[in-house]
Give the backbone structure.
Amino acid sequence: MNVLIVGLGSIATKHVTALKEIKSDVEIYALRSSTSQTNKVKGIKNLYSFEELQTIRIDFAIISNPTFAHKETIENLIPYHIPLFIEKPLFSELDGGNLVKKIEEEKINSYVACNLRFLSGLKFVKEYIANRTINEVNIYCGSYLPDWRPQKDYKKSYSAQKELGGGVHIDLIHEIDYAYWLFGRPEKIHKTFSSRSSLKINSYDYANYLLSFRDFHVNIVLNYFRRDPKRTLEILLEEETITVDLLKNKVFKNSETIFESKKQIIDTYKDQLEFFINTILPEKEQFNPAEEAYEILKICLQND
């Protein structure tokens, strides 16, 4: 199996590790932005132009470069009809769905990687709440941006720079994605974004979404400035409250533990890639293709 990676950063490294565990004989090619990027990573071959793909059979491409560059990358890959594994979010801005339509017209197999759909605690809850009466949902994700990449100046990261597609409202699109996956398309959306914390960055460091469904509301709070990380889902059913601690991969009914797993979020990268290779790549099933991911992007970015 030959895999192309566009954007060899921290997320790509996780995908590379997972790929090598799944397919020990995988050949990995990295498309570098310039020949000045001469650093070599063991087991990865450097490419410096899309034209080089004419002589290599690529089974699929992982797009994990900065979000603002996703559109251009996809446009350059479309002529090669290579299946696309696109790291979230799909794009950094809306374009009326033009590129998604092109992906569909060219019949290019696509998947947008939102790996929390593979967290066993959330998968358990999806089945548990099926056909149950929901009264209210609260989703929270807060962590401290400087701790994400402690070896780097957080203000220079793409997350902190609005012009690079950064901002907690889209960087943590995982929460919007799994809300869509669990509850479907909301009827109304209201949102508030701001950047007022002590982080002093120009991208949004706080986002609050209120998604209105026919019978209940989903409130989603995201931030970059919480020192003690917290990532939870709370669902108020008619007779009980279900709480998921995503960081511990545990599910509670009121105060009673009803599900727990030793698997953590990092393990979902391998589970996700295995599903992609075994199910999506051979077109046995569509799962979060570009057109669905674009609908989720509209929840994040479209005006109220």
Notes: The chain has two domains: 2-114, 120-262.
